[in-house]
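Objective 1b of the project was to move from sequence-level analysis to a structural picture of ligand recognition. The entry below was assembled by the postdoctoral researcher (A.K.) and checked by the PI before modelling. It contains the amino acid sequence of the target and the SMILES of the bound compound, magnesium ion.
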Amino acid sequence: MTMIQIRDVNKRYDDGFHALKNINLEFRQGEMTVLIGPSGCGKSTTMRLVNRLVSPTSGTVEIGGRDIRSIDPVELRRSIGYVIQSVGLFPHMTIGRNVAVVPRLKRWDADKTARRVDELLDMVGLKPDLYRDRYPSELSGGQQQRVGVVRALAADPDIILMDEPFSALDPLSREQLQEDVARLQQELHKTIVFVTHDMDEALKIADRIVLMKDGEVVQSDTPDRMLRRPANDFVRTFIGQKRLEAGGAADVAEREAGPDLGGFVMADGPTVNDVMVTQPAVTYPGRGLAEAITTMERRKVDSLYVVDRQRKLLGSVSIYNVMDSYGDEDKTVADVMMPVRYSVQSGTPLTQAVELLASHRLHNVAVIDEDSRFIGLITRGSVVRHLAEKLPHGDNGEEPGSSTGLGPQGGNREEHS
Amino acid sequence: MTFADFADYFWRNRGLMGEYFLQHVQMVAAGVGLALLAGVPLGILCMRGRWTARLVLAVTGILQVVPSLAMLVLLMLWMGLGNATVMAGLFLYSLNPIVRNTYVGLQQVSGSLIDAARGVGMSRWQQLWRVRVPLALPYMMTGLRVAAVIAIGVATIAPLVGGDGLGREVYAGINGQNSLRIYSGALPAALLAIVADIGLGALQRRLDPAAARSRRPRAGGGASGKDGADAAVPPVPKAQG
Ligand SMILES: Nc1ncnc2c1ncn2[C@@H]1O[C@H](COP(=O)(O)OP(=O)(O)OP(=O)(O)O)[C@@H](O)[C@H]1O
Ligand SMILES: [Mg+2]
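Corresponding predicted holo structure:
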């Protein structure tokens, strides 16, 4: 169902600059649409049409079939979450006040507002007791950005506009927040419009990608179709040749993993939790096959576990499953995945997992928690690294502080079968 | 004349001096206070548009370039002798710094914050009171401070139009060619101006949102290592709280 419809919109700014040229777009209910394109192409302008921060010179914008010119702009904006590109926290208000700004405008009662603020701060990893009463100037850029994101979510709007919300975050918190936002959208059916410069981010979270250039829409498609059928050379360059060479992905498992995949291993306690790779590469059942290959390529693995939005383990796909059906564009990961035959519960002694690996000649085994959520992966590599740390290394002895397990090999290689 | 003579004179007449001092403070407070009451709304009015701003600022600007004596004399012709005339003069004099600084303060709020304020759904009125005005406070304080210091000075010529205050003592000294009395009036007035400047300056810094800091002591011990590092902001001195 179409939630937001932009029809024949042109925008000329006061200085005569023609920022949007005949834009026609629809943002569907419950979908995440990502606007992407070079700087100055009109992404922010397009987004700001939706909450009437920009009024079109010609054309119309409708929300739920209603022309937004007939809606009071103040009411409209209170019902739409907006993460501003420049973060825009109010410097004279505490973090708590900043997050509570829309609930207060909507006159929620104080208790409800306070609970909501704490819940949201928790969600983005800012301890409420520590941060609620601080001022924005006392937070790092990344922390401020997270506050900017939750401010938009505070009053639980159905539509959320996010203008480069994660640009100042480190890769790990970024990944975390991307997943939070994806989950939010999936579970609560939010309609999200998201602006980014980062194609990886777009491919990861988008249901639909809108690629813009010089105030025009160049291509608007699902990530999978965009990868398979780039409309022209501009799209091709923007996506990046690497991602398009899906056929070359089969050998990626042989390459060295980058150091940013964030697996880590604790030194003490011989359970699977201590040894497992904690951020294994996953994909979702609805994803297209080209996307699956892109994910494999990005994570440098040759197979992926398939999870639902609650991270319940559904199956796994290998590069061979994907390649076999790659020609069929309508197939998704769900169509080609295989059931997972072996997994271990969180807390299982490592020795059992190793036995399982050995007796069934597995490359890896999934670790799930009591709700059968996928929480980690035991790979042969992770076991070897663990043992290497435990055992004395010749005469060098063990380096103090090397217990994080991030060895020179990157420590994160995922050898899925 | 030695300092001992001055101190002796001042001490013997401390009652009268206290009275003059109080009158001085009252006149200044009334004039500047009224200017604050009128000037802040005028500053806000300037936000309506460029032409409104030009008009208002031109009028208050002209008021301030009229020499103080001329202003008081003109007001006297209209309002007669007395403290009311002095207060009216101080009021008109103080308008310009207050209106101008209020306007500058409201204007300097960054576009992205106003964008955020609009984006979260604040009405124009809410944008003004919840965002612009709080962020303009230090500017308004600057205006108030400038106005107060000027007014304290101008108020010393009050006796020429029948007003009270420390000027009485100064003019008595001039007429009687008694430098002790001139000092007894002028020194407290100068001191008052310095104190007002420093005091209002301190207040202004406290209102500055750029310096906004949570006043609560940091939970040092309980914080985990990472949060501890995040909180590596120097502790706020107790005296400020
Ligand atoms: N208020 C304005 N007045 C005049 N021109 C503007 C205004 N706002 C934006 N523009 C111009 O319109 C074009 C599109 O701006 P917009 O902010 O939508 O770009 P963007 O795609 O979001 O870029 P970025 O990725 O850098 O944020 C730019 O060339 C910009 O200079
Ligand atoms: Mg932008």
